[in-house]
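--- STAGE predict ---
source: upstream dedup step, 1 unique chain passed
mode: sequence only
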Amino acid sequence: MHHRTDFVRMEDSKKEDWQVIGGEFVQFAQQLPERIIRHLQLLEGDYGGFPIDRYAHSLQTATRALRDGRDEEYVCCALLHDIGDTLGSYNHPDIAAAILKPFVSEDNLWMVQHHGIFQGHYFFHHIGMDRDMREQFRGHPYFDKTAEFCALYDNPSFDKHAETFPMSEFEPMLQRLFARPKNSIYKAALSEKA
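--- STAGE serialize ---
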């Protein structure tokens, strides 16, 4: 990534400028999986009082999903469901969902975005909150999927003795998932470059 344009305001840019920017963007976008992995690794050593650190929890959640035969998109969602913990202390599911939104199906996106409320079923009552807060979504098409994600993968993944695959197991999946967006305002422009 070496080329730069010289306009001061976007309104003064030319098509040639956007060809340069587009070429740089493609290279930058190809590095997205590596940046995501580095960001997820920021959770390493961050226990926050939990039995295992948040990085191990993420790997363990994805390991359980992979062992259960879930597809790669689902496994990647399991891996990244808490990636927002570093920047979104009060809304981490929203951060994870924003990262995944261009690349995953509507049901997996909804699952990630709402998992915090659904996971609360297991502990909200201990901190003075309504453990049944998820009931506001009862009847939603993705309610059962999200409840199942928490029950099978998120909730039990704080076990320091459980099988936990290393990041190298998931890197190829992340490379494939983030190779092409499904839902982006730039999808048409990107298709022309392919």
